[in-house]
Amino acid sequence: MIQDDIRTLEADACARIGAAATLEQLEAIRVEALGRKGVLAQISKEMGKLAPEERAQAGKLLNAAKQLLEEAFERRKREFDESRLAARLDAEWLDLTLPAPGPRPGSLHPITQIQMEIEDLFVSLGFMVLDGPEVETEYHNFDALNIPRDHPARDAQDTFWLTDGNLLRTHTSPVQVRGMERFRPPLRMIAPGRVFRNESVDASHEHTFYQIEGMMIDHDVSVAHLLYFMKTLLREVFRRDVSLRLRPGFFPFVEPGFELDVQCFICGGAGCPVCKQSGWVEQLGCGLVNPNVLRTSGIDPEQWSGFAFGLGLTRLVMMRYGVEDIRLLQSGDLRFLRQF
Ligand code: PHE
Questions:
Q1: Were both Cys, which of 71, 120, 140, 279 would link to 174 (CB 3.0–4.6 Å)?
Q2: Is 177 a residue whose pLDDT tops 90?
C-alpha cells in the first residue's frame, strides 16, 4: 500500500533528521527525501498508476508528509545555526571593561643602556658626568691634548674637517680639556659621547660610534688607581670577574700610555675566533695624564697627577651581546633593536 510507504518514509526521515550530527549530514538527508530525485518524488511518480479516489487520498498524505518533513528540516537547521552562533560568541567573547592594550612600549638602545650603567657606576664613585660638543675646535681635539701638528690623526683621511676650520671630534678626549678648563682639581669626570672618524664602513668600522672618556686628577694618582677603576668598570659591564693585562700604548696625551686587554671570557684565554686566538681582547686606551696636558690647561704637574681612559661603548655592546656587525647598531632596524 502506497499510504503505508509514505508513513514509513515519513517516520524514518523524521528520525534521521533528529539524529543528524552536522549540517552536511542534514543536507544529505534532505536531498535523499525531498530532492528532485528523492524518495518522495519517486512515490509521487508512481501515484499515476493509482485509481483516481485512491490517488487523491495518497496525494493528500504525500503533501502532508512533505510539509512535515520540510518543517522538521527547517527546525533542525535553525538548531544548528543557533549552536554555531553560540560557539562563535563563546570564541569571540570580549571583556569591554578591560583597559585598552595601549601603544607598544619602546626600549632603550643597547648603547644607551650600557652608557647609563657606566654613568651610574662612576657617579657612585664620585665622578661627574660631563658633556661636550660634537663639533670641536682643533685646539680641544688635538693641540691641548699634546697631539703634534704633523700627527697622522690630524690627516683628512681620519678626521672630518669642516670648512670653518673646526672638526667633528675624533674622540671624547677633548672633554678632558673642557673639564680641566671649567673645574679645578681634585677632579673626577667621565664623558660619554658620539665621535666621528673618516673611515670606510665595514662590519667592524663605522664613521660614527660611541666612546666614554674618564679622567681623575688628584695628588699622587698612580697606575694602581687606574687599574683599580678599570677593573671595577669592566667587572660591572661584563658582570663577572675579569683578568686584565696592560700593554704599552702610545697616545700623546698620556705618559705612560697603555692598551688594556681583558682575558677573553668566551674561551677563558685558550684562544678562539672572538679573541683572534690570542686569549685577550683589546678593550681601551689609558694612561697617566701627560704633564704637558695638565700644564696646557693651567694645572701644575708638580702638585697634581691623574689618569685618563677612553673606551669604545660600541665595541663593548658588541662584545657583551655577541653582535658581529657594527652597522646593525645604527641601522634603526627594529628586528635588531627589539632583542634588547
Ligand atoms: N682617545 C683615545 C682614542 O680614541 C683613547 C684614550 C683616552 C687613550 C684616554 C688614553 C687616554 O683612541
A1: 140
A2: yes
Ligand 1 centroid, distance to 168 Cα (angstroms): 16
Please check whether residue 138 is in contact with residue 162, taking contact to mean a CB–CB distance below 8 angstroms: no
Cα separation, 141 vs 170, whole angstroms: 7
**Whose alpha carbon is nearest atom 8 of ligand 1?**
285
Per-residue pLDDT tens digits for 29-64: 888 888 888 888 888 888 878 888 888 888 888 888
Cα of 175 to ligand 1 centre, how many Å? 11
Q: Can you tell me the distance from the alpha carbon of 220 to that of 186, in angstroms, rounded to the nearest whole number?
A: 11
Q: Which residues line ligand 1 (CB under 6 A)?
A: 171, 173, 251, 254, 257, 285-287, 308-310
Closest residue to atom 6 of ligand 1, CA basis: 310
- Select from 327, 322, 310, 316 the least CA-distant residue to 200: 327
Cell of 253: 696625551
Nearest CA to ligand 1 atom 2: 310
Does 236 score more than 80 pLDDT? yes
Task: Report the predicted TM-score, pTM, of the whole model to 2 decimal places.
Answer: 0.70
Largest CA distance in the chain: 138
